[in-house]
Amino acid sequence: HPGELDLAGRAQAALQDLERLFDDIRGYAAPVRLDRRPCDLREIWREAWAQLAGIRGQRDARLEEDPLPAGLSCDADPFRLGQVFLNLLANALE
């Protein structure tokens, strides 16, 4: 089923995120290394919003986007930027 495949994909992505966070904790004393590359900001915040589906629960919450010009991108570490959006959105929901 497509829903089960989507859930499995999200679980795999969450596991990879946890592994990366664990690596960060292990290397806490070491400088943070950024994996900078071109990123689509909309993709990153949409994925963060999708990861919060369980937290959103029955709340009347939705992600609204103003029409933005094409090519909303930046050179950043997509994982770290995703964590920023995830934290901001989770805090807003709380």
Give the CA-CA distance, first to last residue.
32 Å
- Taken in chain order, the helices and strands follow as HEHHEH
Biggest sheet record: 2 strands, antiparallel
Q: Strand pairing plus helix content: what structural class? A: mainly alpha
Portion in beta strands: 5-15%
Low confidence ranges: none
* Total count of helical runs of at least 4 residues: 4
Helix content: 55-70%
Strand segment tally: 2
Strand order in the sheet with the most strands: 1-2
- Give the overall shape: globular
Mean pLDDT: 84
Q: Report the radius of gyration as a whole number of Å.
A: 15 Å
What does this 3D model show about the protein?
This protein has 94 residues and is mainly α. Helices cover 60% and strands 9% of the residues. It contains four helices and two strands; from the N terminus they run αβααβα. The chain has helices at 2-26, 41-51, 53-56, 78-93, and strands spanning 37-40, 73-76. Strands 1-2 form a two-stranded antiparallel ribbon. Helix 2 packs across helix 4. The termini are far apart.
Describe the structure concisely.
The protein is mainly α. It has helices at residues 2-26, 41-51, 53-56, 78-93, and strands at 37-40, 73-76. Helix 2 (41-51) crosses helix 4.
Give the SSE map.
Layout: H1 2-26, E1 37-40, H2 41-51, H3 53-56, E2 73-76, H4 78-93
Antiparallel strand pairs: 1-2
